[in-house]
Specification:
The chain is an alpha+beta fold. Helices cover about 30% and strands about 30% of the residues.
Amino acid sequence: MCSSDLSGNPQGTYLNDMVVYECGDNKWVNYDTLGEKPSPRSDTQMIYDTERGTIVLFGGWANRWFDDVHVCKVSDVVGPPYSINGISPGIGPITGNTMMEIKGLGFNSAATKNATIRYACQKGYLEVSGTVIDDSTVVFDTPDFKKFGPVEVECRVSVANRPLTNASVNFSYFAVTDGDRTLAFGPGLCTGAYAQFPVSFVIEARDEHDQPRVCGMDEFSVRITPPSMAGELEGLGSLALPGDDDEADPMEMRVTVDVADKGDGTYIVTYTAPAPGDYSIAVDFFGTFDGNPGPVRGSPFKASFAESLEDDEKSKLNNSLDGPVMLDTVKNTVKDLKEFCNNKKRGMNKAPTDVGDSVAPLIEVKAHLRSITEETGSSFLTIAANRTALAYLKKKGASVDRLVDSVNQVEEMWTEVLDLGPKVAAAIVPQTKEWAQRTEDDVIAYTEGRRASYEAFKQQAFWNFETGVEKSLAELQATDRKSVV
């Protein structure tokens, strides 16, 4: 605690600094201390209490010998008699319950097998219990981290309620998939692909906040229902899957599906349509990692296949993810949505400003408003699926900038339609009320007229059986003619 030379002749100044050697940085570091420090001195006797994580200092020399005792808690700096250096796996879902293993040393320094693992991020921390397996292994299940979200955390370990390790290991939480948000796109879900050649589509998993997932491991069900075309399948033989019952109907079409997990939140689904026609493709998320299960957006899809070309290369190109089918589908759906938006804007701009003599203009505007409501879900899906498909293709090197601009433009048009709808609905409230009152008045007048006719009908002679059959029939016919007139 002072500077001196090796001759035993003290030189310099007596010190009472706390200096710690940082092994990782290979340097000495001065730490601030709390509480009353001992006076500057040298030749102090010290011992480290591993159980309590403290340094005990006794005596020392500073022109006289001291006989005092001081205790300094250094566990937060030095750490407990165990440490960690690895964690497996390094990622897991925010829903928790991932079986984990932390590696280190000194875990058997306590008699108990109980351990506590702290998962900490900037927003806070959670702790779970674990079990010491051996001197270098602790096992546990990750905590549910939904309250903090998909973030990277620092993990530390405490054994037998002793201090947490100074060293930490990193673990990354990822969001889980929400079936209601997940998208699917590709020629395998469109019109125009060729039968008897492989075709694919992409599933992009998304979380509850509509953000793309960054890793895989999800489970999906893909069920493809072929068209009923037994009459056109003669001569094709059995199309059953390998391993199916030999007694299966040879005319029943079966479709083999391959789902490839790309490890980045996308999945490539590939199948081959055995014959031309309309196919139904149902894509369902199983709820992996306690995510929201169910059909993905737009499922079930409809795909129409044409007879394949004689040129195999053209058929393969047509069916590829960046081929004509996919790009034409984007163009056509964007074009259709643009026409829909323009039609709705023209229709709403014709909203009557006064009651007028006819209710037809009001009914027409209300029909436009109703169709906007009915098409809201499908329009949002068209924009989202096309934008996601183009982003995927651009990432793969395709030149799709003009199509991206078209999607952005149609999104602006759709937003304008949605903004205009409530304004028009509010503007026609007075006309709606007036025509509702007029209609109610007409119904009342009609009802009263029918009631008066009924009472007059009851005054006819035949009502009280005062005439014979022939005369009664004649009077009924005459009354009927008056009613028609």
